[in-house]
Amino acid sequence: MNKFLFFLPFIFLACKSSDTSVATASTDFREFKVLDSQYLEKDQIFGNLLEEVVRFRESDNLNSLILEQSIPEIQEAIASGKLTYRDLTLFYLNRIYKYDRENPKSLNAIISINPNALKQADQADKDLAYLKNQGDEIPLYTLRGMPILLKDNINTSEMPTTAGAAVLLENKSTPDAKIVANLKQDGAIILGKANLSEWAYFFCGDCPSGYSAVGGQTLNPYGRRTIDTGGSSSGSGVSVAANFAVAAIGSETSGSILSPSSQNSVVGYKPSTGTFSGIGIVPISSYLDTAGPMTKNVIDNAIVSRALGAPYQVIDSYGTNDFENGKLEGVRFGVWTSFKENKLYEKALSDLEQEGAILIELDDTRPQLNGFLKLLNLDMKQDLPAYFAGQSDAKYRGW
User: Fold this and answer.
1) Does 95 reside within a domain?
2) Which of 232, 234, 236, 254 is labelled catalytic?
3) Residue 20, in any domain of the structure
4) What is the spatial distance between Cα 86 and Cα 122, in angstroms, rounded to a whole number?
5) For the segment 111-168, what is each residue's pLDDT rounded down to a tens digit?
6) Residue 285 and residue 182: Cα distance in Å, rounded?
7) What is the secondary structure of 285-306 as a DSSP string?
8) Residue 256 is a catalytic residue
């Protein structure tokens, strides 16, 4: 296994520069001017799936097989016949229906649902049955049949891509983003679209994290209206924390994956720009934007990352043997010295050293970003029209 330099912690920047990236409980800030979407109704979101989703009843057995479980654990339960891909998909859809909108526990994390999700789950069950009949080995470290949510600035052919903006509600006939095509190639089910800070937080610096005109105000499941969601991939982080899907895909220019991952206690990976394709994602800056996975654990993050980067094996050194062995001998971790005062951080470093990891102390002096906003303005002036010209619904061509 190659040796990589990891950074602890992963969360440093936020798309919105303010103290709200810390889990505070400011009464003034939490008095949201707008909470619910003026464009969405819960039953309408579920469309042709509504009747079956409402009829579905979760059980303690399903809870134990799905909630907080890793992708390999879920795949193992399905391979052993304890669960089906249809059960899994219905379970998540039912949780979204119960907890996401129009009730006292609303999180407003979901903007749209894939009308073909259950058909795709049924196909995954058929494919699995075929593999079993052939006597083939059933892979566990795969996205086959795994329901995944997309931040709603990422194109998929089954649903509109709005970036949270009312003006893009008709942006329906869009080709799959390259990363979405990769996810589907690995067998993933695109379950739906997640809410976000509108336009990835670019046009509304004073808006709360996680607010969009289309989706309303996303709320943190660990503290509705008391703990900030982070942004701009707010709905993606909230959805994973609330067990609305196996994983979600966010996007980042400066902190938009890392901030909501931190705020919602999930694992977010912001790869180096260019690691994953940006084709089919509503842009701020093609030079700085990147998509990335948000998951419940590190193993799932690596599995999703491997699919996102296909056909290029950007993390091919993380094979299944590495997942199963879990060896840290010789792996290098970058350590920010300013965090060592935190007892939990200190304990984590001690645990890593005991497993043979190499800790390298880093200077946490932050670079000056003079002219950063000007750069983003110039990039968006060029990149957004390019998206409309080649990746949007035809009615937006020429914008």
Assistant:
1) yes
2) 232
3) yes
4) 6
5) 999 999 999 999 999 999 999 999 999 999 999 999 999 999 999 999 999 999 999 9
6) 22
7) -TTT-EEEEEESSHHHHHHHHH
8) yes
Is-contact 212 113, C-beta < 8 A?
A: no
pLDDT tens-digit map of 310-345: 776 555 544 555 666 668 889 999 998 888 889 999
* CA–CA gap between residue 221 and residue 354 (Å, rounded): 34
**pLDDT tens sequence across 253-275:** 999 999 999 999 999 999 999 99
In whole angstroms, give the CA distance from residue 39 to residue 344: 43
Is 232 among the catalytic positions?
Answer: yes
386: its two tokens: 């390019």
Contact 108, 34 (CB under 8 A): no
Using DSSP's 3-state secondary structure scheme, residue 44 falls into: helix
CATH at residue 146: 3.90.1300.10
3-state DSSP percent of the chain in helix, strand and coil, to 5? 40, 15, 50
CB 270 within 8 A of CB 252: yes
Which one from 37, 70, 106, 151 is the annotated catalytic residue? 151
Residue at 77 is within a domain: yes
pTM: 0.89
DSSP state, 156? B
Residues of the domain holding 272: 5-326+367-396
Total count of residues recorded for the chain: 399
Per the domain annotation, does 170 fall within a domain? yes
What does the pLDDT read at residue 16?
47
Cβ atoms within 10 A of the Cβ of 303, count? 29
Quote the CA–CA distance of 279 and 183 in Å, as a whole number. Answer: 14
How far CA 58 is from CA of 25, 82, 94, 145, in Å, comes to 33, 14, 8, 19
Count up the domains in the chain and report the number: 1
Whether residue 162 contacts residue 138, with contact meaning beta carbons closer than 8 Å, is answered with no
Kindly name the residue from 254, 256, 305, 392 that is annotated as catalytic: 256
pLDDT, tens digit (0-9, with 9 covering 90-100), for 174-212:
999 999 999 999 999 999 999 999 999 898 777 899 999
**193 part of the active site:** no
Contact (CB, 8 A) for 183 and 148: yes
Q: Which residue has the tokens 């989703």?
A: 53
Q: Greatest CA separation found in the chain? A: 62
Contact 195, 216 (CB under 8 A): yes
